[in-house]
Amino acid sequence: EVQLLESGGGLVQPGGSLRLSCAASGFTFSTYAMSWVRQAPGRGLEWVSAIASGSSTYYSDSVKGRFTISRDNSKNTLYLQMNSVRVEDTAIYYCAKSASGGSYYHFDYWGQGTPVTVSS
Amino acid sequence: DIQMTQSPSSLSASVGDRVTITCRASQGISNYLAWFQQKPGTAPKSLIYAASSLQSGVPSKFSGTGSGTDFTLTISNLQPEDFATYYCQQYNRYPYTFGQGTKLEIK
């Protein structure tokens, strides 16, 4: 059974940093692309970043230069390093598994999300 | 960026009804279109990919059509558990983008 378990969310001050993790199980993690998707309170879904199985990375303009996606295939874990956070980064952050290792594949599984609140 | 526009934004229907939600892309995306269901306080659930292919385990009451710029999600024989918010998403190119969502409510 595919499981994605996010952690690392919490309260952070504007300008601060936070690292989110997504522990994966039930599939061969190294062979699949992964993404982060967020949802601000009361709002819709927003794709944030993706990493292919070969570790190519992609970012939305809203986080480019501030967030870094990475993966540790030995630990079956996806990360999102969030630096210089802003109030508008407040959201629930979901990790999502792609159906293949490359780009341009649909998401087939989602984690339960971890909340991030940026506030002073 | 490719903009995804869903209509309607909200929809009231009764148990047993059949409803259709539309999604329009600002440029052609072939069939790189997915649909998700989200209930309050829970993660999105994948329903359909490649515009019309049903995700494993999703009942056949959900169906999708379309290609290029215009897509539809149809849900037949609505049951209480189907009342939720539905999102379309294009994965034809980065940045992936979602529609604004359609909230399906019980009439």
List the helices and strands and how they pair.
The complex is a heterodimer of chains A (120) and B (107).
Chain A: E1 3-7, E2 10-12, E3 18-25, E4 34-39, E5 45-51, E6 57-59, E7 67-72, E8 77-82, E9 91-98, E10 107-110, E11 114-118
Parallel strand pairs in A: 2-11
Antiparallel strand pairs in A: 1-3, 3-8, 4-5, 4-9, 5-6, 7-8, 9-10, 9-11
Chain B: E1 4-7, E2 10-13, E3 19-25, E4 33-38, E5 45-49, E6 53-54, E7 62-67, E8 70-75, E9 85-90, E10 97-98, E11 102-106
Parallel strand pairs in B: 2-11
Antiparallel strand pairs in B: 1-3, 3-8, 4-5, 4-9, 5-6, 7-8, 9-10, 9-11
Jot down its keywords:
heterodimer; A: 120 residues; seven-stranded mixed β-sheet; 11 strands; globular; B: 107 residues; mainly beta; four-stranded antiparallel β-sheet
The rounded Rg of chain A comes to: 13 Å
What is the rounded distance between the termini of chain B? 36 Å
Give me the count of strands of chain A. Answer: 11
- The number of distinct helices of chain B, counting runs of at least 4 residues, comes to 0
Largest interface, counted by CB within 8 Å of the partner chain's CB: A-B, 24 and 27 residues
User: Which structural class do the helices and strands of chain B define?
Assistant: mainly beta
Strand content of chain B: over 45%
Instruction: Tell me, briefly, the overall form of chain B.
Output: globular
